[in-house]
């Protein structure tokens, strides 16, 4: 990423007025080994759309190993990184998010987790970087996917729906269209300059995640915020030893609106760079998504119509980050 050291470059990007809310909000915490985990998960998904997971069984070394490898990638020259970009949508990207004009103070790698969907840019990436990087990515994705399926099964248990793999089977399916993203938000010292102080720089603009579920792990730099019911933004305290799980649009649809796909964003930091890694669990492209019959007692209660993930994903890629994509599912 080319970090321009003057204000005009920042003005191109999105500056928002800083909010003066108390520093960090409380986030529900789920201990995966606790017998009541399923109850806490369901309540968190209904009330927040987001929760923190501890005792998840993924070794911390596996996460820090990938983080170090990702940093090695991002510390390369711009020209070297650009060989794996621009994203198609997979590959290396800088500042531009999607293809519809969204900008952020971020550079990233976006990968499809299905080995059969290896895009030209991803091929370039792994050809030009040490094998150890690809291995670290694969190992991490394998471990996070396993944890993610456990969480999805606890959700089914908590909702008392059967079979308990009703959600997780879509992620385990060999055709699952899941993806993985590594984001680096460089520190932006200009934010301390008087003319800009009192304003925030958008690292990744507000949006909901289109898939079923997202699992995020970051370093200890703050930046992640979620939108509360009253429309205000609250900061989430970073914790490099935990995962943060959030409900995606498809899960909101399948639970007929009971689980909330939460709007979130990331702000850049003036002194420390933030590195996050997110696994987005998605179904196969031809999977039909609609409210689960067991959660809708009468047809009239169904809030959403049926769409395939392919249809929804195609529409998402035509939208801007902050668009309300879920309204495409609206029945009325
Ligand atoms: C948001 C969630 C994931 O990061 C992502 C993003 C995708 C992209 O960066 O290519 C999108 C965005 C995300 C939703 C709307 C479209 C597509 C950028 C964008 C403007 C990988 C995803 O699946 O949807």
TrEMBL record:
InterPro entries: DIOX_N (IPR026992), IPNS-like_FE2OG_OXY (IPR044861), IPNS-like_sf (IPR027443), Iron_ascorbate_oxido_reductase (IPR050231), Oxoglu/Fe-dep_dioxygenase_dom (IPR005123). The keyword Iron applies. One of its GO terms (biological process) is response to light stimulus. One of its GO terms (molecular function) is metal ion binding. Its cofactor is Fe cation. Its EC number is 1.14.11.13. It is an enzyme of class 1 (oxidoreductase). It comes from the Eukaryota. It catalyses: gibberellin A1 + 2-oxoglutarate + O2 = gibberellin A8 + succinate + CO2. Keywords: Dioxygenase, Iron, Metal-binding, Oxidoreductase. Belongs to the iron/ascorbate-dependent oxidoreductase family. GA2OX subfamily. Residues 175-283 form the Fe2OG dioxygenase domain. The keyword Metal-binding applies. This is gibberellin 2beta-dioxygenase. Pathway: Plant hormone biosynthesis; gibberellin biosynthesis; Hormone biosynthesis. The lineage of its organism: Eukaryota, Viridiplantae, Streptophyta, Embryophyta, Tracheophyta. Catalyzes the 2-beta-hydroxylation of several biologically active gibberellins, leading to the homeostatic regulation of their endogenous level. Catabolism of gibberellins (GAs) plays a central role in plant development. Converts GA9/GA20 to GA51/GA29 and GA4/GA1 to GA34/GA8.
């Amino acid at each position: 990423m080319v970090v321009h050291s003057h204000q005009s470059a920042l003005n191109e990007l999105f500056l928002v007025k800083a909010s003066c809310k108390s520093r960090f909000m409380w986030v529900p915490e789920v201990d995966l080994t606790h017998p009541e985990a399923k109850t806490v998960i369901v309540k968190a998904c209904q009330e927040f759309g987001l929760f923190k997971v501890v005792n998840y069984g993924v070794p911390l070394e596996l996460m820090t190993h990938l983080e170090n490898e990702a940093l090695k990638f991002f510390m390369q020259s711009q020209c070297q990184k650009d060989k794996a970009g621009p994203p198609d949508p997979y590959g290396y990207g800088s500042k531009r998010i999607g293809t519809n004009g969204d900008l952020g103070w971020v550079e990233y790698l976006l990968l499809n987790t299905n080995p059969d969907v290896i895009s030209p840019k991803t091929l370039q990436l792994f050809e030009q970087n040490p094998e150890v990087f690809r291995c670290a990515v694969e190992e991490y994705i394998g471990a996070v996917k396993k944890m993610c399926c456990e969480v999805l099964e606890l959700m089914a248990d908590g909702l008392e729906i059967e079979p308990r793999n009703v959600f997780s089977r879509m992620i385990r399916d060999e055709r699952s269209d899941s993806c993985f993203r590594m984001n680096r938000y460089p520190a932006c010292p200009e934010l301390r300059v008087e003319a800009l102080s009192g304003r925030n720089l958008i690292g990744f603009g507000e949006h909901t995640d289109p898939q079923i579920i997202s699992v995020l792990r970051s370093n200890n730099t703050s930046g992640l915020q979620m939108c509360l019911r009253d429309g205000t933004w609250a900061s989430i305290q970073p914790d490099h030893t935990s995962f943060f799980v959030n409900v995606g649009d498809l899960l909101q649809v399948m639970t007929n609106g009971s689980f909330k796909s939460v709007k979130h964003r990331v702000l850049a930091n003036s002194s420390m760079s933030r590195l996050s890694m997110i696994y987005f669990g998605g179904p196969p492209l031809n999977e039909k998504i609609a409210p689960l019959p067991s959660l809708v007692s009468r047809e009239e209660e169904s809030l959403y119509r049926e769409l395939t993930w392919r249809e929804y994903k195609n529409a998402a890629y035509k939208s801007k980050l902050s668009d309300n994509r879920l309204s495409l599912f609206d029945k009325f």
